[in-house]
UniProtKB/TrEMBL annotation, chain A:
Residues 7-100 form the Sulphur oxidation protein SoxZ domain. InterPro entries: Ig-like_fold (IPR013783), Ig_E-set (IPR014756), SoxZ (IPR030995), SoxZ_dom (IPR014880). Gene3D superfamilies: Immunoglobulins (2.60.40.10). It comes from Thiomicrorhabdus immobilis. It holds the Pfam family SoxZ. This is Thiosulfate oxidation carrier complex protein SoxZ.
TrEMBL record, chain B:
Residues 51-153 form the Ig-like SoxY domain. It comes from the Bacteria. Keywords: Signal. It comes from Thiomicrorhabdus immobilis. This is Thiosulfate oxidation carrier protein SoxY. Residues 1-32 form the signal peptide.
Length: 103, 155
């Protein structure tokens, strides 16, 4: 199942703030299950990429300390009508991607 | 004799090529590897060494670090690092000083990006949020204490 992403972005004077809301548990692997006494298995997004018209602009690495259902905002140099893509993958190999046209 | 060694060599290189194609020998990946060393580090200095290869960051007023003074729920602490006033920002790392593994996230910027990041992070207790910015080969930092009042009953 692909990771779900919701994106929004608006360009002003050649710079666009791109916001993304991602649906993901971001389980760090440290949190204990009180019933079994064992930690919940780690499942968190570790690689994030932001592309503008297919060219990589931001390359991020995350740990399990990013909040559940992560929010991310970055700024890229792009104009209205440019295509911005966010690509993700988590430590279990699950991936997700979404793109929007900037307003 | 010559022919034999020739054959040997071609066979060996052939096998290596197959291995590369099959993804067994990933040629030292440029960006794609998750920085295990930095993310598993137990102290902020270790984490910085893992990310940037140095830990001597200088305080800078040009980094605008926005985090709440009091976070009622440490699991969703909003943090914004605005380094757009600095020229040539290459990367930004966000750390929570007393988390078991301090390094939270690390962003590397290409030519098409501006040095700005906003996200939400988990914090286990009251501690400093540290933003480290690499610009023009130098490390700059800003930090702010965030009081975490778990359960929302005041601290």
């Amino acid at each position: 199942m692909a990771i779900k992403i919701r994106m929004r972005g608006k360009s002003q004077n050649g710079v666009a703030e791109v916001k993304a809301l991602i649906k993901h548990p971001m389980e760090s692997g440290v949190r204990m299950n009180k019933k079994t006494g064992k930690p919940y298995p780690a499942k968190y997004i570790d690689m994030v990429e932001v592309l503008v018209n297919g060219t990589k602009a931001v390359d991020a690495q995350w740990s399990g300390a990013v909040s559940a259902n992560p929010y991310m905002a970055v700024m890229v140099k792009a104009n209205a009508g440019d295509e911005v893509t966010v690509k993700l993958s988590d430590n279990t190999g699950e991936t997700g991607s979404d793109s929007i046209k900037l307003k | 004799m010559k022919r034999r060694s020739f054959l040997k060599n071609t066979l060996a290189t052939g096998a290596a090529a197959v291995a590369v194609n099959a993804g067994l020998l990933t040629p030292t990946t440029v960006l794609a590897d998750w920085n295990k060393k930095a993310f598993n580090a137990k102290t902020t200095d270790e984490a910085l060494n893992g990310v940037f290869g140095a830990s001597n960051a200088a305080d800078s007023g040009d980094i605008k670090l926005k985090a709440p003074a009091i976070a009622e729920n440490g699991a969703v602490t909003p943090v914004t690092v605005d380094a757009s006033g600095i020229d040539g920002v290459e990367s930004i790392a966000i750390m929570a000083s007393k988390n078991p593994m301090p390094l939270v996230c690390e962003y590397t910027f290409g030519a098409g990006a501006v040095g700005y990041v906003s996200t939400r992070i988990k914090m286990g207790q009251t501690m400093n949020v540290i933003a480290v910015v690499k610009a023009g080969g130098k490390l700059l930092k800003a930090q702010q204490e965030v009081k975490v009042t778990i359960g929302g009953c005041g601290g």
